[in-house]
Amino acid sequence: MHNITKHPILEIKKKKEITFTFDGKVLTGFEGMVISSALFLNKIKIFGHHVKDNSPQGMFCANGQCAQCNVIVDGIPVKACMIPLKKGMNIKSCNGLPELPPIDDSVSVGDVEIIDSEVLVIGAGPAGLSATKVLGTQKLQVILVDDKSRLGGKLVLQTHKFFGSEEDVYAGKRGIEIAKILGDSVRSLSNVKVWKNSVCLAVFSDGFVGILKNNKEYVLVKTSYLLIATGAREKMLVFPGNTLPGVYGAGAFQTLVNRDLVRAADDVFIIGGGNVGLIAGYHAIQAGMEVVGLIEALPQCGGYRVHEDKLRRLGVPIYTNHTIISANGMNKVESITIGQLDNDFNIISGTEKTFPCDTILIAVGLNPVDEFFHKAKEFGFKVWVAGDAQEIAEASAAIFTGKIEALKILKEMRFEISENLDELQKFANIMKSKPPQPIKSDILFKEEGIYPVFYCDQEIPCNPCTSVCPQEQIETINNSIMQLPYFKGEQECIGCGKCVAVCPGLAVILMDYRNDKDKPLVTFPLELTNKKLEKEEKVIVVGNKGELGEFRVYRSRILKEFPKTQLITVQLPSEIAKQAVAIKLYKRRYSEPLELYQKSYTDDDIIVCRCERVSVGEIRKWIRSGVRDFNELKALTKVGMGACGGKTCTPLIEKIFREEGISTEEIIPGTKRPLFIEVPMGIFASAKDKKEEL
């Protein structure tokens, strides 16, 4: 099986192996993992073929937002990314529309249960958990609903340490740790009911919220106050080959790798230089995969510089001012063709390069999952919104906005609020702020004593290093979370290494000149192996301009507070020590471009609606004929009428309208579906098998 058996951060626990069948073949998976991950575990990335053109269908979001991963389980079509694997499951490829089951007289119809709650929170990610914690401590009756089996949302996918402040958003801790902290705090509240594996289907004009509880029971919740914390969905791009199995969102990749411990790829290429793309690249390397390269259409990456530096120092080529031209392959991704952009974002002829890879990660941003909020507002609910559903930002910001919106609900309920909401909102805005340009500065090395050196050069909200220093010798200017840290030196550094271990950007090292001014000891953080390095083992020392040479380990240690970050000390010549910023364990394989993949494409080859296989060319044809109404476009092409309900294609079609010179004001929006998630009709009738009732 293609599972991850060792990881520098994640604990690999033994799981129960079970058998199931896929298209008649007996396979092995792990009990409880979702079906899509079990198929990837067995190197199966094609889940079916589309009824329209027989195109191979794979996975895209792994978050229940699209329908690319549909399979047939025991005769019922389901999303493979949302259904846990069970022993003996009979799974079949979804090749077109499944046959309707025969009439079954053994099914009975029951009543729908109505449940009252003072507050209903939809979404148990960082925002929802933070909000529920605040609301629950006031002894309110709260129901927290989430469609996953684990609390934490995207936090359970994050193996890196978080930025921000230690006090407010657990900076210096990893997302997986923060998920547990917040989850445990919510589970400890007796007045809070937590419904996992439960999907919010719709909000209704009569004040009810329809929920599929535990993936089997439909209930209606009547709530006085509603908080939406449903997070975000991945954006897609239009390019030739964009629906090939092997092209999927970076969040889906992190789900496979960091949640389900599946080796999802061998050679990865990343589209997008924001934090999501940069972090996904680092996660791939931690899990033992090769990152062939990363492209960003803008002149510089939009994510934190420290995330970008981590990839560059590990040898990942980053191509700015580049875009994807095509994903290439017959039934799966085999290579990617990229090209350089000019100032008008046109591809410069002759700059095309093709690289072999089996996976292309799309990390070009997120769209809020906010349809519940807007519909609830339209129907007159007392409703609030937090996290990415409110505004796309870092998870640390979501923790903060969840707290703020919960306090607003308490204020509406006439509770006494001690916190200053205006000040909290100012801090939240800081957490949401875009990273500024890096600051160029020369580091002055004092060739005596021991002290930390900070290689963070971008003013982003982060200060955990100031919290962990036992000598209280690390500060930021004016104690601002947005200012860069420095070592005061009023007391002698004791060389504990806590500042090195806590840094989310791995941007702090320790210089020690006490024993030898010509060959100082330099201590680096390392998160690339679960094996503790021994003295005399070799590591590669890296500077900002490349490798500086191979050197032997002088000492390695692991601090109790930071058990997954090794502190590796190397003795270096003084001039090399002043250039050294990181270490790595081995040289990464550099992929040379292939001979250019020769194939000409038209807009008719590029898919914009994944569910109904509608091309960009077809959309342009109708726009040019005068269509301005989304509903008319639906009727003509079936675009947006697939299982996902237009969640992925609508923003792409809006972009095509703009490219055709049609302003937003000229476009008539399409009618939104009353249900936001697909569900079997029998669920609404509380249909049950009479045989099971006996």
User: What radius of gyration results from the CA coordinates?
Assistant: 26 Å
Report the uncertain regions: 690-694
Total of DSSP H or I helical runs spanning 4+ residues: 18
Structural class: alpha/beta
Overall shape: it is globular
CATH class of the largest domain: Alpha Beta
CATH homolog superfamily of the largest domain? FAD/NAD(P)-binding domain
Number of domains: 4
On the 0 to 100 scale, the average pLDDT is: 92
Distance between the termini: 40 Å
Name the CATH architecture of the largest domain.
Answer: 3-Layer(bba) Sandwich
The description of the largest β-sheet is: 7 strands, mixed
User: What is the share of helical residues?
Assistant: 10-25%
Strand content: 25-35%
What's the topology here?
Blueprint: E1 17-22, E2 25-30, H1 35-41, E3 48-49, E4 56-57, E5 70-73, E6 76-79, E7 90-95, E8 107-109, E9 113-122, H2 126-136, E10 142-145, H3 166-169, H4 175-187, E11 192-195, E12 199-203, E13 208-213, E14 217-228, E15 232-234, E16 247-249, H5 250-259, E17 267-271, H6 275-286, E18 290-296, H7 305-313, E19 318-320, E20 322-328, E21 335-340, E22 353-356, E23 359-362, E24 366-368, H8 371-378, E25 383-385, H9 395-412, H10 421-432, E26 450-454, H11 464-468, E27 474-476, E28 485-487, H12 498-502, E29 508-512, E30 521-526, E31 538-543, E32 546-558, E33 566-571, H13 574-577, E34 580-584, E35 607-609, E36 614-615, H14 616-624, H15 630-637, H16 649-659, H17 681-684, E37 687-689, H18 690-693
Parallel strand pairs: 1-7, 3-7, 9-10, 9-14, 10-11, 14-25, 16-23, 17-18, 17-23, 18-19
Antiparallel strand pairs: 1-2, 3-4, 5-6, 5-7, 8-37, 12-13, 13-14, 15-24, 20-21, 21-22, 26-29, 27-28, 29-30, 30-33, 31-32, 31-34, 32-33, 35-36
Helix pairs in contact: 2-4, 2-9, 5-6, 6-7, 9-10
